[in-house]
Amino acid sequence: MPVCATAVPSSVTATASSSTRWDEALLRRYDKSGPRYTSYPTALAFHEGFTAENATQAIERSNASQRPLSIYVHIPFCRKICFYCACNKIATKNTALAESYLYRLDREMVLTARHLDTKRPVNQLHWGGGTPTFLSLEQMGDLIDRLDARFGLSNAPERDYAIEIDPREADVLTLRHLQSLGFNRLSLGVQDLDPRVQKAINRHQPRVLTETLMDEAHRLGFLSLNLDLIYGLPFQTERSFAKTLEQVIALNPARLSVFNYAHLPERFKPQRRISVDDLPGADEKLSILRTTIDMLTAAGYQHIGMDHFAKPNDSLAVAQANGTLQRNFQGYSSHARCDLIGLGVSAISRIGDSYAQNPTDLASYEENLDQGRLATVKGVRLNQDDLIRADVIERLMCDMRLDLAAVSRQWQVNANDYFASALESLRTAEQDGLIVRLDDTLEATPMGRLLIRQLAMAFDAYLPGHSGQRYSRIV
Asked: Can the peptide bond before residue 265 be classed as cis, meaning omega within 30 degrees of 0?
């Protein structure tokens, strides 16, 4: 799911829908800026001292674990820019430009596979962007063939092979082709079905385009369909977004992602085409948020965390119930304990105890690969404290609770002593009813789930050093 579609996802919860539990004043008091924790440490801790050689060493060390693999491929091309977009992208209508990029992707695969035990199964594959469906059907097939040749793709029924789709650039033939390539999950960008909103964000997308693809995907038997929505866009109101939700619920996707638009025109040039005067105010956005929670809950969706909702039988909901849900740079994932190989411009890998990031500009990415080395330009190797805190933050973000006794057993520490300062800093949140502590268990309340990022920040050892950095707002 394209988490870059907007700058910040909304922390919403199904169990917060009760009017007796909705505390707008409390939300406002805790609505500060903070990390989204798709990684810990966050990308702000990545440094240029971590080189391609360090990334190679991380790959080689990871082979001993024999963990399965998750592969992310970034396709940066788009035919038309949406004004809200914060993705790493290249605007062009010339699909021939993708040929040189596919060649560089293959070079990156070759360099990676030289150091990787490719007998490790590829349990998860995700194509994001940009717009992966920018590629022609032939180019898509070529990319899959290259991935299979270098890593060995899976045909196991439990695999999770997903691709992000722009309904304006796909049809039923596209879906049939994707199924033949082995994809079994689709994520469709919708954002909003209101024509006035679509015009303001430069994304004309009639409902029939999405509906036609959804019908065909259901007929073809794709395991899971996700729709992306964004609230906080120009001209949206509580009433207008409720109409979009009604139509989306009728389409019956297994998953929904509801992102909260953050207007940062100084960082993202396309957003300068959006007038701040056209955006809904803070009160209206909270009303949209509350209506979203109520409607999706009533429709049978469970809130997974942050921006994700899922039907009870979807693999995300099942993984959360089993305690095996994880977070990575694509959001929540049902495939825990995989090493993540990121391919393409701006892609980030999580391999064993290390993060490695590629350049965000295409020229640098291509130059590094042309010189016969991995494209890594920065990253970080986690120390023991990082690993412990990463586990604690991930469990809190995924489970909405934290078992300190389990942390003590897993890491051979006394978690109460180790996190004494963090637990002390959470006392105010506990008094405000955001978290309940019972013996060695911390559990977020309905309002606390809305502010789970704020609770997780208590365990972040890097925040003081990043206090001047601009994070997105929590709600």
From this structure: no
